Each structure stands twice: as structure tokens, then as C-alpha cells.
Amino acid sequence: MAQKMNAKCSICGTAYHVCSTCKSTKTLTPWRTIADTIDCYKIFTVVKQYTNKEITKDKAKEMLEKAVMPKELEPHIKAVVDEIMSNKTKSEKLAEKAEAKTKNNSEQ
Ligand SMILES: [Zn+2]
Question: What are the b/e assignments for 62-71, b being 16+ CB within 10 Å?
């Protein structure tokens, strides 16, 4: 029996198959009903938590960097991912801070 593509990944838009057993065992592998891969699900979780303001941009970026990005992203997901990934890293921020400090000192 051929597997029917009965689901679409909410993150990359890939059609995939979810068996009814998977659907009924939502508590065991809930991500199978949302995303086609665990990485897509990771991205979904980060995007969701970030847009709900449950995690900071720093944390979101850190989490996204651990996940494998699919080639394609749904436009609304991509917009959030791009926003998170454009965030400056901690070291970049520290460097900026140090620079500002030097500036302030020289102005005094
Ligand atoms: Zn996907």
C-alpha cells in the first residue's frame, strides 16, 4: 500500500505521511503531526516560543543554530527565522559595548 501524503510540514511546506497510529499517539511523538522532520519541529518550537515572547532573541538564535535548516521555509516562518538570525551574537554585542565604553571615556 502506497503511503498517502496526508500532512504538510508547517515549517518547510513538504508533504509527508502521518500514519493514523502516529496521530493517535500524539503524546509520544507530537511533532509528527506538525513537521516532517525533528529539525523542522525544532524550528517550529523556536519560532513559536519567540513570537510568544517566551524566549529571547539570543536564546532563539542559539537554538536555531543547533537545528538543520531545510532548504525551503514557509514565508511566515522564514520571516521570523530571518529576524532571529539577523540578531547579533553576544560577543558582537560585547565588542560593541566595549567600543562604546572607549568612546565615552575619550569624551570625558
Ligand atoms: Zn519540514
Answer: bbbeebebbe
